[in-house]
TrEMBL record:
Keywords: Signal
Descriptive protein name: Aspartyl protease
Signal peptide: 1-17
CDD domains: retropepsin_like_bacteria
Top-rank taxon, per record: Bacteria
Gene3D superfamilies, per database record: Acid Proteases
Pfam families registered for this protein in UniProt: gag-asp_proteas
């Protein structure tokens, strides 16, 4: 009984906050060598040690999750001392083509051009674009969606990674329009709800939220 109470108290005790994290080494798509609060450790992608989860690793930087936030840190860079949140990334988009906001992006490592659409529930793409991105969209759930041209059907998929400028989000919901009539990729609210938006002299500014 005493052992049970002891284990219960340990499991219920909140994890200590991480004060400093430094990247000492990176293994592309596999692991990272970190110094967490002065203690060096190797963490594989998707694993957690010392209160830090490694979400992604490239040859130049790592995406980490700790203290309730996601952080992008370069090799040999450090967050901490006394812990401070990193500066929020922003993207500035000028209007063109009839007042629309076009912006280059990246989906699962493939370049794509979006037009910002606050009226779209999800990122929306055509079947042709889904094939270009290598998505197995036919396994997605079938739903009815209302567009400017009426009601149509779409397959709902999850995009592993979506980047617009310096802003990156993971596990983003998207709709693949079955009739393949969508001429552009729409950057909808499944991505936009993760940013703050404002306009400055006709320029749309997206700023990531933590």
């Amino acid at each position: 009984m005493r052992l049970y109470v002891l284990l219960l108290s340990i499991l219920s005790f909140p994890a200590a906050a991480v004060d400093s994290v430094q990247i000492k080494g990176l293994f592309n798509k596999r692991a990272a060598v970190l110094v967490v609060d002065g203690q060096q450790t190797v963490i594989k992608v998707g694993k957690t040690k010392l209160g830090v989860t490694l979400l992604e690793a490239t040859s130049e930087e790592a995406v980490l999750y700790f203290n309730g936030s996601e952080h992008r840190i370069g090799l040999s860079k450090q967050i901490g001392g006394t812990y401070q949140k990193p500066t929020k990334n922003s993207v500035r988009i000028s209007s063109r083509n009839g007042g629309h906001y076009w912006v280059p992006g990246n989906v699962n490592g493939v370049s794509i051009r979006f037009v910002v659409d606050t009226g779209a529930t999800n990122i929306s793409i055509s079947v042709s674009m889904a094939k270009h991105l290598g998505l197995d969209y036919k396994k997605g759930g079938l739903v009815s969606v209302v567009t400017a041209n009426g009601t149509t059907q779409a397959r709902i998929v999850t995009l592993k990674k979506v980047s617009v400028g310096s802003i990156t989000q993971h596990q983003v919901r998207a709709a693949v329009m079955i009739d393949d009539s969508l001429p552009v990729a729409l950057l909808g609210n499944s991505f936009l709800r993760g940013v703050d938006m404002r306009t400055e002299n006709g320029v749309l500014v997206l700023t990531e939220r933590f």
